[in-house]
Structure formats: C-alpha cells, structure tokens
Amino acid sequence: MSDKTAPTMEYWHVYTDAEGMSRQKKCTLSAFKFQGVGPDVEPQWNDKQESSKAAVTFTVLPVGWVGEWHENPKPQWIAILSGRWFVETMDGTRVEMGPGELMMGEDQNTKERDGKKGHLSGTIGEAPCTMIVTGLDVAPTVDRPGRFR
C-alpha cells in the first residue's frame, strides 16, 4: 500500500433508530492520516477517534454461549480476536463475525418489541470466541449509523 493512498477499515455499527429499534449497518473508518504516533516514531496510517475515557475488557465467550436479548452497556468497540460469534438486531438482521472483524455496539435506549430489546448474540462453532471490548465514556446517539469515520 502506498503511503499516498489512505486505507479504509470496515466495521459493523449496531445502533438504535429513531423509532427505538436496533439495526446494523456496515460502515467504514476513512479518516486515516499518515503520521507517527509520537515524535520519534515512523509514520503510519492512523484514524484517531475523539478522545474519551475508556475501559478495556478482554472477553472469552464459551462454546454454546448465548447472550439473550440485551443492550450494549455503553457505546463500545468490539474486536474479534479468535473464534466466531453472531449478533442479531431487532430488525431481524443477523451478522456473523470472526477474527479481525470490528463492531461498534451502540444500541442503547431501544424500545421493547415482541420480547426483543437491544440485540441477541452468541458463539458459533466449536471454539470459544475471544474479543477485546473497549467501552467508551460517551453519550450514545440515536439513528447515526457510521458516525465514527
């Protein structure tokens, strides 16, 4: 990749629409700049997000794990490290993700419909799903899929 052509990175954004229904949309990080992360570091492609307090949790979902309908506790980035999992939103969309895939969970403030609120998620296959979850101390938005660029 040439240092003159900025890369992009796809992610799934789980969000709440204006009617309180959770949905998913594939979005793209696209504000990469070629710069060092410090004064003595060679330039690399970085897409810096807005600063906020954050908490990092390493998670291992066991084989057969199912997280019944629930909302993300706060806006959070989820990066899959190994294994596979699925996320199903209230609109009926089911997305399966594996190693190297990225998701933003921002389905706070959904309105229960037919016993569903937030999203359903679970592991797929015969291996645990490991992930790194970075919870952000930011206010969730409504109906703004792809707000992270």
From TrEMBL:
**SUPFAM superfamilies recorded for this chain?**
RmlC-like cupins (SSF51182)
Task: Quote the biased-composition stretches of kind Basic and acidic residues, using this chain's numbering.
Answer: 108-117
- Note the InterPro entries from the entry: RmlC-like_jellyroll, RmlC_Cupin_sf
According to the record, the residues making up region (Disordered) are 96-123
The name under which this protein is listed is: Cupin domain-containing protein
Organism the protein comes from? Methylorubrum thiocyanatum
